[in-house]
Specification:
This protein is of the alpha+beta class. The protein has a single domain, classed as 2,3-Dihydroxybiphenyl 1,2-Dioxygenase, domain 1 (Roll), CATH 3.10.180. Helices cover about 15% and strands about 40% of the residues. It is built from two helices and ten strands, in the order βαββββαβββββ. The radius of gyration is 14 Å and the shape is globular.
Length: about 130
């Protein structure tokens, strides 16, 4: 299950280029070479800490707080559904899920809420 998966905090940015300048130029962080949709970027901080910055018009508290990087999204979703986790469906500009799953350029993602209403995601990167 998820106990063996990496988790990435996620930070929305209303201007992804401005955010990139901040994280790269001001903080000196480097992008991790993983393809991301819509100009999103994963940054490395320390030896094994990474976080995602992505373009979003969401207000604070309405965006994904963290994502779990998984090898098999479908299997993880089945396991979580068996435990009563409900996956969200979205139809937003640039993001539409089908049966809880968003697919773009081979990457797949699914969102669900924790017991407190925080939005979490499972993400399988393109192979």
């Amino acid at each position: 299950m998820l106990s063996g998966s990496q988790i990435y905090p996620t930070l929305p940015a209303s201007d992804i280029q401005r955010a990139a300048r901040f994280y790269e130029d001001k903080l000196g962080l480097k992008k991790v070479e993983m393809p991301q949709p819509n100009g999103s970027a994963i940054y490395q901080a320390g030896d094994c800490t990474r976080f995602l910055v992505y373009q979003s018009a969401s207000k604070p508290g309405e965006a994904t707080a963290a994502f779990f990087l998984v090898d098999d999204l479908d299997a993880e979703m089945r396991g979580l559904r068996d435990k009563g986790v409900a996956f969200e469906d979205y139809e937003l500009e640039g993001l539409k899920t089908e049966n809880g799953v968003f697919v773009e350029d081979g990457m797949k993602a699914a969102w669900f809420k924790d017991s407190e209403g925080n939005i979490l995601s499972l993400t399988e990167m393109a192979k």
